[in-house]
């Protein structure tokens, strides 16, 4: 694997900004997960257990900051060198930015334009299958339940109408499932166990950050 992929990003990766609730170590793991699974493969990242406790919304927003742009459509499904994309975006002039991320102020891409952009980005920023195969992710074996976007994350996120509807339906099902467990007296015990698992995970991450400082 090339050195630029496996090296530890000691300078805040590449001057990206941290989303609330993220540590440097967690963002380094997210960077590797995005290269391994591809941008937009949020469920695969969640299921890999490399970032327990993170919701899809949190991962989505931190990915925007790693790439340096709010719109992710032209990178969906791609395994790319995120640092290279970020540096490319930082060189762009006459654009609006928020948290170092370019804000899309024009019309949304058509399906044909999006396909063209994806092909171009794969050519310019893509990493090889051989490099992807060598990426190793930590696995913390936290028995946390599947993470869902909150209502605010869905409505305020940069999602299409269809994506918002799908996420709202998924959230509704999760709420109904939890209400049923409350009625049956099952949720409190499971919640206590999840809290303990997350506490242990945070301690591992804190110890890891301290040892690498």
Automatic annotation (TrEMBL):
It comes from the Eukaryota. PANTHER family: CHROMOSOME UNDETERMINED SCAFFOLD_30, WHOLE GENOME SHOTGUN SEQUENCE, UBIQUITIN-ASSOCIATED/TRANSLATION ELONGATION FACTOR EF1B, N-TERMINAL, EUKARYOTE. This is Myb-like domain-containing protein.
């Amino acid at each position: 694997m090339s050195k630029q992929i496996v090296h530890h990003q000691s300078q805040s990766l590449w001057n990206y900004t941290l989303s609330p609730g993220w540590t440097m170590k967690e963002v380094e793991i997210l960077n590797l997960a995005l290269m391994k699974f591809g941008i937009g493969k949020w469920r695969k990242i969640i299921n890999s257990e490399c970032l327990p406790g993170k919701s899809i919304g949190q991962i989505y927003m931190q990915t925007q900051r790693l790439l340096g742009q709010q719109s992710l459509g032209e990178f969906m499904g791609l395994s790319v060198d995120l640092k290279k994309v970020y540096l490319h975006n930082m060189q762009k002039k006459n654009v609006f930015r928020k948290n170092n991320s370019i804000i899309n102020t024009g019309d949304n891409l058509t399906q044909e334009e999006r396909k063209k952009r994806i092909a171009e980005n794969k050519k310019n920023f893509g990493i090889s299958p051989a490099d992807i195969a060598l990426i190793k992710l930590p696995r913390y074996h936290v028995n946390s339940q599947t993470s869902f976007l909150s209502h605010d994350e869905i409505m305020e996120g940069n999602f299409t109408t269809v994506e918002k509807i799908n996420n709202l339906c998924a959230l509704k099902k999760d709420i109904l499932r939890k209400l049923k467990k409350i009625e049956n007296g099952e949720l409190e015990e499971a919640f206590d166990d999840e809290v303990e698992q997350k506490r242990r995970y945070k301690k591992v991450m804190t110890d890891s950050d301290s040892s690498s400082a």
